[in-house]
Amino acid sequence: MLDQSRTDALGDALYNALKSGKPTPKISVLEPESDIEDAYRIQLRMLQRRLDAGDSVIGKKIGLTSRAIQDALGVYQPDFGQVTKTMLFEDGAIIDLSKLMQPRLEGELAFRLKEDLMGPGVTTTDVIRATEYVTPCFEIVDTRFEDWQIRIQDTVADNASCGVFVLGAAKADPRDLDLSLAGMVIEKNGEVVATGAGAAVQGSPVMAVAWLANTLGELGIGLKAGEIILSGAQAPLLAVTDGDHFTCEIAGIGKCEMRFAGRAMV
Question: For the purposes of burial, counting CB atoms within 10 Å of the CB of 151, is it exposed (0-12), middle (13-18) or buried (19 or more)?
Answer without folding.
Answer: middle
